[in-house]
Design a protein that fits this description.
Protein name: F-box/FBD/LRR-repeat protein
Order of helices and strands: HHEHHEHEEEEEEEEEEEEHEHHHH
Shape: elongated
Strand content: 15-25%
Organism: Citrus sinensis (Sweet orange)
Number of helices: 10
Largest sheet: 10 strands, parallel
Length: 349
């Protein structure tokens, strides 16, 4: 097989495993130098015994250096999963090298410790990543510091962006000119975090928003979504922030998974889920979690704050809905099911 086919096969392996194929024969000796995907995971280093942690880290860092500096072939994907780095500047150097080699996809999963510990340091990205003309997919699973380029345009070719937010450091998605697929995991772990979540984009088509925080902590946070071309929305919220939603004219599919049974004694907060649902009109598909429909975790309070049967049959149930799927456990209340069966019986007659 030609080298291009061999490289394609090896690109599905961790890079360290792909390099080991060089010992197979003289034919394989330099195939690894043209790998289009460079995927590094330091757990392979920790499997080795007999060396100190510092030696393992040194070996891993030197290996990544050698792979990125070995040739000038363009990179399709640079992936880094790392438990620990001695110097965060090393990461900036690696990402800059990948950008120089016209990388199309970057994925970084890096443990950087507790953001509330003394001496904690978030991760900075090299300035060149914000202006890359080849980068299309960016996945950052750690606490990163974001900068807004002076040009007013950020990530000019990135269509798919996955980002974690640990502190008030929200990227400005409105200056990402071709962004289509956005996934945000926001950790509202600090009750003193007074920054809101703002998502504004004229090009966004798919949004996955996950908000996590202390289950019973009061939150005054607000999430704003303004995306006129948005087609698919998935919200998973364990804290129940308030939502401001604008211009979702193109929205077809929505999945709303909000757990709010613990705040039913707070009517203002409990009403936030309903206010979000009122903004989602003209949908073709809607998924609602049990936390929105009824209170299944506290049966004693079910009659007080659980399912309330509508006074009138909703218009969509009369004329539009073609398929209803209900997933529930053995202990879940069946009132919503009984209501739908009653409507179905009326249709059949």
């Amino acid at each position: 097989m030609p080298d291009s086919v061999l490289c394609h096969i090896l690109s599905f392996l961790p890079t360290e495993a792909a390099v080991r194929t060089s010992i197979l024969s003289s034919r394989w000796k330099f195939v690894w130098t043209s790998l289009p995907n460079l995927m590094f995971n330091d757990k392979l280093c920790y499997r080795r015994s007999g060396t100190s942690e510092n030696d393992k880290l040194t070996r891993f860092e030197n290996f990544v250096d050698r792979m990125l500096l070995s040739n000038s072939v363009s990179i399709n994907k640079f992936s880094l999963h790392c438990r620990k780095l001695r110097y965060l500047s090393r990461l900036k150097f690696w990402v800059a090298l990948a950008i120089m080699r016209n990388v199309r996809e970057i994925e970084v999963n890096l443990r950087v410790g507790d953001p509330f510990e003394e001496g904690y340091e978030p991760v900075e990205l090299p300035d060149c990543i914000y202006n890359s003309e080849t980068l299309e997919i960016l996945k950052l699973e750690s606490d990163f510091v974001f900068k807004s380029p002076s040009s007013g345009i950020c990530f000019p070719r990135v269509k798919k962006f996955h980002v974690e937010i640990h502190k008030p450091n929200m990227p400005d998605f409105s200056i990402c000119p071709v962004l289509e697929d956005l996934s945000i995991v926001a950790y509202l772990l600090d009750i003193h975090w007074d920054a809101d979540i703002s998502i504004s984009s004229q090009t966004l088509k798919r949004l996955n928003l996950i908000i996590e925080g202390p289950m019973f902590a009061a939150t005054g946070h607000q999430a704003t979504i303004e995306a006129p071309k948005l087609e698919s929305l998935h919200v998973k919220d364990d804290t129940l922030v308030s939502y401001l939603v604008y211009e979702l004219h193109s929205l077809c599919d929505a999945c709303i998974d909000i757990y709010y049974t613990c705040v039913r004694n707070d009517p203002d907060r409990a009403d936030r889920a309903l206010q979000l649902l009122k903004k989602l009109t003209n949908l073709k598909s809607l998924y609602l979690s049990h936390g929105i429909i009824c209170d299944v975790n506290d049966p004693e309070r079910y009659e007080e704050a659980g399912w309330i049967e509508p006074q009138f049959v909703p218009y969509c149930l009369q004329f539009n809905v073609k398929k209803i799927e209900i997933l529930y456990g053995d202990d879940d209340p069946l009132e919503p099911v009984k209501y739908l069966l009653k409507i179905l019986e009326f249709w059949i007659k």
